[in-house]
């Protein structure tokens, strides 16, 4: 056993670093995001659940703006375009199904 932050970090975009653990059918990630950082619009075949541990994250999910704050979550269906901008420093848990092979 180890802490997620002991795993090698993956820079997703400037100011966004993810730490990922992989099972047979899912990926768990802890993402640290610096205030003002942006994750450009993208989509992927993976279903994603994003849970906010700390901070305020403004997301656009399928054309809908939503502000996620500490304790909130959002389910992002497969292939739906989404983006994010951190209003404050954030810590976020992301779960993906199936496994994010590109994050290994």
What does this structure look like?
The protein has 104 residues and is mainly beta. The chain has one domain (19-103): Jelly Rolls (Sandwich). Helices cover 0% and strands 58% of the residues. The chain is built from no helices and ten strands. The strands form two sheets. It has a six-stranded antiparallel sheet with strand order 1-2-3-10-5-8, with no helix packed on it. Strands 4-9-6-7 form a four-stranded antiparallel sheet, with no helix packed on it. The model has no long low-confidence stretch (mean pLDDT 97).
Short description:
By secondary structure, this protein is an all-beta fold.
Fill in the keyword field for this structure.
Jelly Rolls; six-stranded antiparallel β-sheet; 0% helix; 58% strand
What would CATH call the architecture? Sandwich
What is the domain total for the residues? 1
The CATH class: Mainly Beta
User: Kindly, what is the distance between the CA atoms of the first and last residues, rounded to a whole number of angstroms?
Assistant: 17 Å
Largest sheet: 6 strands, antiparallel
Rounded mean pLDDT is: 97
Strand order, main sheet: write it out. Answer: 1-2-3-10-5-8
Kindly state the number of beta strands: 10
* Cα-based radius of gyration, to the nearest Å: 13 Å
CATH superfamily: Jelly Rolls
Q: Helix content range of the residues, please?
A: under 10%
Shape from CA axes?
globular
Poorly predicted runs are none
């Amino acid at each position: 056993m180890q802490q997620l932050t002991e795993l090698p970090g993956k820079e997703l975009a400037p100011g966004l670093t993810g730490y990922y653990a992989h099972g047979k059918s899912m990926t768990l990630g802890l993402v640290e995001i610096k205030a003002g950082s942006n994750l450009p619009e993208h989509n992927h075949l993976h279903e994603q659940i994003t849970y906010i541990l700390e901070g305020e994250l403004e997301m656009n999910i399928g054309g809908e703006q939503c502000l996620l704050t500490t304790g909130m979550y959002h389910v992002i269906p497969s292939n739906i375009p989404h983006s994010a901008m951190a209003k404050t420093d954030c810590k976020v848990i992301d779960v993906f199904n199936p496994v994010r092979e590109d994050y290994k």
